Amino acid sequence: MKKKVLGRGLEALIPEAKSVDAPLTEIDIDRIVRNPNQPRLKLTEARLEELASSIRQNGILQPILIRPFEDGYQLVAGERRLSAAQRAGLLKIPAIVRNVPDNLLLELALIENIQREPLNPIEEAQAYQKLMETASATQEQVAERLGKDRSTIANSVRLLKLPPLIKLFVADGKLSPGHARALLASNATPSEMAQTAAFIIEKDWSVRETERWAKHHPKAPTLPIIQDPNEAAAADRLRLILGAKVDIHAKTKNKGEIRIYYYSQDELIRLYTILATKAIPTEPSHAIQEGKRGG
Questions:
Q1: What is the rounded CA–CA span in Å between residue 98 and residue 88?
Q2: Residues 76, 11: contact at Cβ < 8 Å?
Q3: CATH fold for the domain made of 10-159
């Protein structure tokens, strides 16, 4: 049985929208209200300015889609075009007016956004989740309606379980969804996940390296409480640098110990390499200076 795919375009849901003879209307921009369920939460400043500049020069080539709403209209699809038109100083915008039912509003906005300007991974996950809630649909049903694999929807929605800071990293493109899912697979606390995410970004870890860390990470480790805030700050800094659990124990005012934990031979070798590289310079600075004078 062939899938009914709605991801091909708006015309798959509203056939009139693709018709050459579809009536266009110039609508006052201030009469159009936004869709509160718009999946795109963040508009890229540079791309928005680029589109506004194009609109100033060439006008709007593709009309937005709106529906009657209260005393005006509500946006169905065309969030970026509407925002760019406002930025370009337009008072009116070409639009197609359609009576779109509430149960298709989010689905149309989601499809239009994915096709025109991909949502960031967190926006996409939130849109799928909202669509499931609004339509009382399962992941499989949403996948069927959007022409995607169920695993794609499942992997996307799973990102919503991430701690807020890591969601921000993923939304900004600093961390890939693959890295984020590897972090979720570990038994790390949200705080440890955040520390590890910062280390991944700083050291440019691959997804495979992150998965290896997640596999060997101990189950729900409890970090020791360090009373001295300076020691706590130092331990946090070392955790970020080494990407490993670090404890600082002060035994007296001037004596104590630093413990670095590892959970596999590969991790031991990695930590040794970091420490050895930082502790032993490849060439003493005085030798470099002598070489410069002699050469």
A1: 25
A2: no
A3: 3.90.1530
